[in-house]
Specification:
The protein is mostly helical. It is built from 9 helices and no strands. Helix 1 packs across helix 3 and helix 7 packs across helix 9. The two termini are about 20 Å apart. The relative contact order is 0.09. About 10% of the residues have low confidence.
């Protein structure tokens, strides 16, 4: 149904996954306005590249989350977004971020509870890499930790998450 790119396939895709993907994107960009722009791009990318999905490499949901995450990070790093931040009046920018930080963004996919099962250092690595968009090199710099250690700890954190998520499949 999805590979044939039928209209009903798209509706099924959107109805069943938009909330979860919206949550992932919102956590990264921390702006409802930007999230609404990005979610549209994400569904277009998923729709246009559905033929590239390979079930042997992983779950469909994970594939879509990676597309959403990468699109959100690319958006944050884009020149147009950086220019928007520079051109935005400071009081409005501060107000928007303060509002987001004081409200409890809904955990659309229940992932926070699973993430809390990890040790705090592993939580921090996952947060920096997957929610804030840091590369492993940037994490190494930020945490003043050797790159090899970051890579090892990240792998360990992801393996632990994979083990924890077995119960949710």
């Amino acid at each position: 149904m999805l590979r044939q790119q039928s209209e009903s396939g798209f509706h099924h895709l959107y109805d069943n996954y938009s909330g979860a993907l919206y949550g992932v994107i919102l956590r990264i960009v921390q702006s409802k306005e930007y999230t609404e722009e990005i979610i549209q791009d994400v569904f277009v990318k998923i729709w246009n590249s559905i033929h590239q999905y390979d079930s042997a490499k992983g779950r469909f949901y994970t594939w879509m989350i990676n597309i959403a995450r990468n699109t959100a990070i690319d958006y944050l790093k884009s020149k147009s977004f950086q220019n928007q931040l520079k051109n935005q009046p400071l009081p409005d920018f501060v107000y928007e971020n303060a509002e987001l930080s004081t409200t409890n963004n809904a955990d659309f996919i229940g992932f926070n509870k699973v993430l809390e099962s990890l040790e705090s250092d592993k939580q921090e690595l996952i947060d920096l890499a997957y929610y804030q968009g840091y590369t492993q090199s940037e994490i190494s710099e930020k945490l003043n930790m050797p790159l090899g250690t970051v890579k090892t700890k990240m792998r360990s954190a992801l393996m632990k998450l994979k083990d924890l998520l077995k119960d949710y499949q």
